[in-house]
Design goal:
The radius of gyration is 19 Å and the shape is elongated. It is built from four helices and six strands. The strands form two sheets. Strands 3, 4, 5 and 6 form a four-stranded mixed sheet that branches. The protein is an alpha+beta fold and 135 residues long. The longest helix has 20 residues. It has one domain: Cation efflux protein, cytoplasmic domain (Alpha-Beta Plaits, 2-Layer Sandwich), CATH 3.30.70.1350.
Length: 135
């Protein structure tokens, strides 16, 4: 991906360019810190990367640059018990604010795909069959 020029005319010290991967990291971190988000990612490639232990702060995030604006696509797993529209609204606000405040780049759209729901962990004894239970 090509870097984004921040100051077209430059400064007395030079120019500033931001790689799109940086925007992905910022957006991913902002989304992951939103209450109700269990995990980022959810597609096949993200699942395989997670199984082999590869850590990627931009997991489940894709940024597309259109002129001086960015469009963000997120894939998330939501926590059970949270209202999806509310969580998505908070994600959109958090991502737009984080990218704008750190880079000065406007986020025109935030698209969110829910790839799963994470349920609360059950204690191990509930997973074992009870004595005398008929199967």
């Amino acid at each position: 991906m090509n870097p984004i020029a921040m100051n077209q005319g430059g400064t007395e010290l030079g120019t500033i360019q931001i790689a799109p991967e940086v925007l992905e990291i910022i957006a991913g971190q902002a989304a992951a810190e939103t209450e109700g988000v269990a995990a980022m990612g959810g597609g096949l490639a993200d699942g395989l990367a997670g199984m082999i232990g590869r850590k990627n702060p931009a997991r489940g995030v894709r940024v597309t640059i259109d002129g001086d604006r960015a469009e963000v696509e997120l894939s998330i797993v939501i926590r059970y018990g949270f209202r999806i529209p509310d969580v998505c609204e908070r994600i959109g606000r958090n991502v737009k604010h984080a990218v704008q405040s750190m880079t000065g780049i406007d986020v025109s759209e935030v698209h969110i795909q829910i790839h799963g729901v994470q349920f609360k962990d059950r204690p191990a004894e509930q997973d074992e069959p009870a004595a005398g239970r008929v199967k």
